Amino acid sequence: MNDISTLRELRPVPPPAELEAMRMAARQRFAAGPKRAGQRWRRPVLAGGLTTAAAAAGVAAALLLTSGPGAVPGPQGTAGHRRTVVTTAWTVREDADGTVRITLQEYSDPAGLQQTLRADGVNAIVRAIPYTLQTSVNINKPIVRPACNYVTIGDREPLSVQGAVVTVGRQALPALFVIHPDAMPAGSALFLAFMASPPNATGNIAVKPVVLSNDTVPACVPVTTKPAPGTPPLGRKAGGPVPSALPRAA
Amino acid sequence: MIIDTRASDADLIVRSLAEPDLFTAVFDRHSGEILRYVYARLGPDLAEDVTAETFLAAFRCRNTYNDAWPDARPWLYGIAMRQISRHRRVEARRLRLLLSALPDGPAEDHSDRAAERVTAQRLGPRLAAAVAALPRQDRELLLLVAWAELSYAEAAAALSTTIGAVKARLHRIRVRMRAELGGDYPVNEENEDE
Fold first, then answer.
1. Which helix (H) or strand (E) segment is A82 a member of?
2. Which side of chain B, N or C, has fewer Cβ within a 10 Å radius?
């Protein structure tokens, strides 16, 4: 027994049901934004839609939430959005107008990203490109190169459709793509590929999403790394050591 | 919105600068705890308002968050403390009420907790009066440790001070409380060295 634990016994504690009701009311007030001067908050009717629920989207256990402070516009000034899925690797946000914004923080969890995009109504195919690791003698760091090429393969929609469906905000990390699912022709699929590199390596790439005419998964065609006759391998100084190539499956 | 539960508070707060809605996850993680604290300090009439105001204030100043702290609780308690301090009269009334309304504990409970409850019931009015008489800064610290159950390091972060300063101030508080309550004040060596 000590003074702290004795003081703790004096702490008034609300009944759990009352606490939860107050918490939900506070949540609505928080979501509604700051009150104006002279304005009184009124106890709102609790809405079932505010219930926190466990959900899974091909990632770790996650929390399902509604929108945040209503007085604060979204980062792009959008009027609102239906839902946002956030993982440590990427964020997918579906706006109220159906636009889907993909932000890639890192290149990982392609399966989770694909599942989330499909849940948002985007017929998406997301693949990680296998990589080849080479050691650079110039910067003494491993260099990652794609082991295969998806992009030149597949029946694509015309450029006008590509432009209507996909807007690239930024292709380097954190990459941002804005997708307009309404502009996707029936039967088409959005193909997104990125190369996840090993730690301490340079050479991450994200391929601009491509609208395919159908949802046939493109083949991964190996990229030839054989140097042209008479040219030294990339990243190798004349007379320097021969770089090692460590092919690895994705 | 679906939030990866592995994301730290710091991660969510930093990312909420670009995506404000992510801050809702910070609310959902910590609002229960903050609400309990505000309820204990101010009672049911103000608990909702002050909790909502705390998180709105936190949202507005999230760009100042020190992301070296993965856990946002100390920061949130610091903000809650400032919101609570705007209702000093209500808190004073609350403490007076506390002097006379300590509920009975279960008679069959023979644990240490039961002993603490008996002590609290016996000392309650005098202890609450002594807490109420503390300077505001001292009362804040004592209640952050006793009611919010923050560690010394967390309390130091909430009060924007050092752990050494927290320990020294708590020692002074205990000396003062002991002087007011005499030998009844329950202090042991363990928590003096905590």
1. strand A81-86
2. C
A75–B4: do the CB atoms touch at under 8 Å? Answer: no
Helix/strand number for chain B, H first, E second:
10, 1
Q: Is the CATH number of domain B8-101 2.120.10.30?
A: no
Residues 6 or more apart in contact with residue A176 via CB below 8 angstroms: A101, A102, A103, A104, A168, A169, A170
Q: What residue type is A61 in one-letter code?
A: A
Q: Is A93 on the interface with B (CB under 8 A)?
A: yes
Identify which of A14, A20, A66 has the shortest CB distance to residue B44.
Answer: A14
Local confidence band at A27 (pLDDT 50, 70, 90 cut-offs): confident
The total number of structural domains in chain A stands at 1
Q: Is A46 inside a domain boundary?
A: no
Name the pLDDT band for A56 (thresholds 50, 70, 90): very low
Q: Which domain holds residue A140?
A: 81-226+240-247
Cβ neighbours of A1 in B, within 8 Å: 112, 115-116, 119, 186, 188
The reply to whether residue A7 touches residue B127, judged by beta carbons under 8 angstroms, is yes
Residues in chain B within 8 Å Cβ distance of A91: 15, 19
Q: Residue B102: what pLDDT?
A: 52
Structure tokens at B77: 């308690």
- For A88, the closest of B6, B59, B124 (CB atoms) is B6
Among B41-55, B85-99, B155-169, the minimum mean pLDDT is found in B85-99
Quick check: B54 and B33 in contact, CB under 8 A? no
Q: Say whether pLDDT at A136 is over 80.
A: no
> Does the distance separating the beta carbons of B43 and A30 come in below 8 Å?
no
CB atoms A87 and B18 under 8 Å: no
Specify the CATH architecture of the domain B109-194: Orthogonal Bundle (1.10)
Instruction: Say what the alpha-carbon torsion angle A250, B5, B6, B12 is, to the nearest 10 degrees.
Output: 110
Chain A segment 34-53 residues within 8 A of B by beta carbon are 34, 41, 43, 52
> What's the Cα-to-Cα distance from A244 to each of A118, A133, A135, rounded to whole Å?
40, 8, 6
Torsion angles phi and psi, residue A134, rounded to 5: -130, 155
User: Could you tell me the pTM of the whole model?
Assistant: 0.53
Tell me how close the Cα of B56 comes to any Cα of chain A, in angstroms: 6
Burial class (CB within 10 angstroms; exposed 0-12, middle 13-18, buried 19+) of B34: buried
Q: Taking 70 as the threshold, does the pLDDT of residue A84 lie above it?
A: yes
Q: How far is B175 from chain A (nearest CA, A)?
A: 12
Q: B6 with A88: CB under 8 angstroms?
A: yes
> How are beta strands A189-195 and A205-206 bridged, if at all?
antiparallel
